Amino acid sequence: MKQAIVARTDLGMGRGKLAAQVAHASLSAYEDTSDRTRKQWKGEGQKKIVLKADGESELFGLADAAERRGLPNAIVRDAGHTQLEPGTVTCLAVGPGDEDEVDRVTGDLSLY
């Protein structure tokens, strides 16, 4: 089991902003996960990986791929309180889910 969080590289987010957006994505996808999957993922150490995306359209394409595979996923839109305009799409979380299934969606991306 694992979760992949994909963050945009084209926004120039600071480290703190990036960390917050990744956390929002992780928690949002987790909340949409079945109880059984949550328990299994938590029991296995909550494996996560953070990956790079070039822009908003890439995130939406990956979200569509996750949906087709039945994987929990969540797109994050920033509230606009600090560095970004309100509604800016920043991250996507895919999973938690079967590691092979998550990799079929995000396996070609580079580590952040």
UniProtKB/TrEMBL annotation:
* Superkingdom assignment: Archaea
Catalytic reaction annotation = an N-acyl-L-alpha-aminoacyl-tRNA + H2O = an N-acyl-L-amino acid + a tRNA + H(+)
A single BP term in Gene Ontology:
translation
The organism's taxonomic lineage, starting at the top: Archaea, Methanobacteriati, Methanobacteriota, Stenosarchaea group, Halobacteria
Q: Name one GO molecular function term.
A: peptidyl-tRNA hydrolase activity
**Principal location:** cytoplasm
What does the entry list under GO cellular component? cytosol
Q: Where in the cell is it found?
A: Cytoplasm
Enzyme Commission numbers on file: 3.1.1.29
Chain ranges passing through the membrane: none
Q: Which UniProt keywords apply?
A: Cytoplasm, Hydrolase
Which gene is this protein's source?
A: pth
NCBIfam families, per database record: arch_pth2, PRK04322.1
Reported function: The natural substrate for this enzyme may be peptidyl-tRNAs which drop off the ribosome during protein synthesis.
Protein known as: Peptidyl-tRNA hydrolase
Q: Which family does it belong to?
A: Belongs to the PTH2 family.
